[in-house]
Amino acid sequence: MMNRRQAVKATLYAAAAAGILRPGHLSAQPAVPSEIWVNPATGADTNSGAKATPLRTLAEAARRVNQSNASGPVTVVLSEGIYAVGETTLLKPERRSFSKTERLTIRAEVLPDDPEWHTGRMPTLIHTMPLPKTWNGRPDPLGGAADGMMIETSHVSIQGLKVLGMPVVETPKPGLIQRLYAISRLRRDLEDLEVAQCVFIGDDLTNPNHVTIIANGNGVNVHHCILRGVKISVVYWSGGSSGHAMRNCFCDGVYGSGVWTAGIAGDFDYRNNVIANCNYAWTYQGGASALADAGGRGGRQGAPSSATPQALTHYKVVDSYFANNRRLAGSGTGARLEYADMDPSFLELAGTKVTDQPVVFERDQTKRNYLHPVAGSDAAKVGAGLFLNPGA
Question: What is the predicted pLDDT for the residue at 136?
């Protein structure tokens, strides 16, 4: 049996051999390989992160990235399985940066267009962390909020994950709204966030998913995602920001709104989306109101937007399908969803159908189009869903 000194020495040598510490510089920052593997069943957070010796948690993979001082792209690969997310995954590299071509990517091992893929192979994240009594760095009068992933770097892609809500009672007593923000990017100076081929699911009784993606800054591109039973799908949050897109997404049974724009620029690329059976298809918030919410100065939770019709930014809705939604548009702010119905004329509908007929989705779990609009329906023809190449 090794004594304590021998055990420490053996651990250091093993770390050096795995590339976590540089030989001869045991106090240096780790050099992270271009791929980090995570497996909740076979991994351990003391492992190297190689495919044969994966980590157990996404949060540990993020720490490895944050502490490294290498260059080039990094891909964090999640094997199939159930991930109990017990802490926020903070992506905040201190000694490196990424670029449009050399990205930080978090993705499933098998993606939907792979012939070997089925929905059971999606890494499934369920949030189990304690609920802080703060949000956005300040005390939260509504009871607290948790962030699943907090992104504090540009040029990030998230692909192929299934993300569930948090098993809390959202409103345990009047005035409280305990909330989960599955993916958050709160800094206004960041750009280029891609979320693709992900499934976001919530249930207001068992695991509410308050907002799946909330992002400040420019270039938020959400495409080929399914968002079902959540409260709010995506919040594009920085007034005046540009380069945003939402394409080929299926939002079904969203009890808040199918998309939330906070005064973003009119170049919003919104196309080939199916918004069905939701409370509002679209929430409009003025940019100044959103800035007040973000900074905690001015504004009032639940107050309707002060924008007049003449001041509204207009958006083009291309080749989409809005079905059986309670209202097309509402204005407002705050987690309480105290909206005011509004005239949807700020939306220019191009090749877009609006109907009061509900969309039926595929319930057979053995089919590749499980949770998609049923094959052959008008909604299915829009092309919303997980597959980049649906005809392949």
Answer: 83
Strands 138-139 and 134-135: antiparallel
> What is the DSSP secondary structure assignment for residue 86, as one 8-state letter?
-
User: Where do the domains of the chain lie?
Assistant: 1-26, 32-382
Helix, strand, coil in percent for the chain, rounding step 5: 10, 35, 55
* Span 184-195, average pLDDT: 97
How large is the average pLDDT for residues 384-388? 98
Phi and psi at residue 121, in whole multiples of 5°?
-90, 0
Predicted local distance difference test score (pLDDT) of residue 9: 38
pLDDT above 90 covers a percentage of the chain that reads 78
User: Residue 81: what pLDDT?
Assistant: 98
Whether residue 16 has pLDDT greater than 60: no
Which residue has better confidence, 24 or 71? 71
Please give the pLDDT value at position 292.
66
User: In b/e form, how buried is each residue of 171-200, taking b as 16+ CB within 10 angstroms?
Assistant: eeeeeebbbbbbbbbbbbebbbbbbbbbbb
Name the amino acid, one letter, at 182: A
- Answer yes or no: are the C-beta atoms of 380 and 372 closer than 8 Å: yes
The 3-class SS string of 101-160 reads CCCEEEEECCCCCCCCCCHHHCCEEEECCCCCCEECCEECCCCCEEEEEEECCCCEEEEC
CATH topology of domain 32-382: Pectate Lyase C-like (2.160.20)
Whole-number Å distance between alpha carbons of 89 and 25: 28
Burial (0-12, 13-18, 19+ Cβ within 10 Å), 365: exposed
DSSP, collapsed to helix, strand or coil, labels residue 340 as strand
Task: Please calculate the CA angle 370-374-380 and round it to the nearest 5 degrees.
Answer: 110
Q: Which amino acid is at 228?
A: R
- Bridge partner list, 353: 321
